[in-house]
Amino acid sequence: MPSIPYDLAAFLVEAKRRTYAGLDDDATVATPLLAGSRQLEHRAAPYAYRDIYFGMGFFVGQETVSRDERVIWSMSYSGGVRAEITDRETFLAIYQFLRQALLAVSVAEPYRGPRRFEQADMVYRNEVEGALDRFHGVETIARRDGTTLYELRYGGGLLR
After folding, report:
1. Which ranges constitute the DSSP H helices of the chain?
2. What are the pLDDT digits (tens) for 126-152?
3. CA 133 to chain centre
4. C-alpha of 55 from chain center
5. Domain coordinates in residue numbering, the chain
């Protein structure tokens, strides 16, 4: 397994907190590279983070980290709220809760949120396997009664 610098994991946590998790779409770049996408960015030399995604109810995206202008790490993801959830208030509440969970991302597992996060009547779970160099996982949000509201699958690692 390649040596993974602690500063890459710490940078990922900072970047995630300063983009979608912390600012929602207010962190969106005005002119994204891909038409119709949302693009979020954060820089702290020598690293640069970019998250590009399409969609909202169901979405797909990719995060990349560059070091000195060369992409060294990436994660792709897809998921969203269940198709039968059409109530705007419920929809917005799920994503607000998701952002709260994502703010609790840790340097030990800097992919999405923590293994478990609870608030009000919702429970976030993140099941991940692997390490920063190669990983995959599934995150879900459910009501306390077990009703699934949201699911996302993700995977990625260091590029070589």
Report:
1. 6-17, 20-23, 88-103
2. 999 999 999 999 999 999 999 999 999
3. 17
4. 14
5. 6-158
The mean pLDDT of 86-101, rounded to a whole number, is 94
What mean pLDDT is reported for the chain?
A: 92
Q: Copy the structure tokens of residue 2.
A: 């390649």
pLDDT tens by residue, 25-49: 666 787 888 999 999 999 999 999 9
Q: Which residues contact 149 (CB under 8 A, 6 or more apart)?
A: 81, 82, 85, 90, 94, 122, 141, 142, 143
Provide CB contacts within 8 A for 67, sequence distance 6+.
8, 46, 47, 48
Question: What would the two tokens of residue 87 be?
Answer: 């109530």
Token pair 């792709």 in the structure block, residue: 76
CA distances from 58 to 25, 86, 93, 152 (A): 16, 12, 15, 9
Nearest of 38, 40, 47, 54 to residue 12 by alpha carbon: 47
- What's the rounded Cα separation, in Å, for the pair 77 and 64? 12
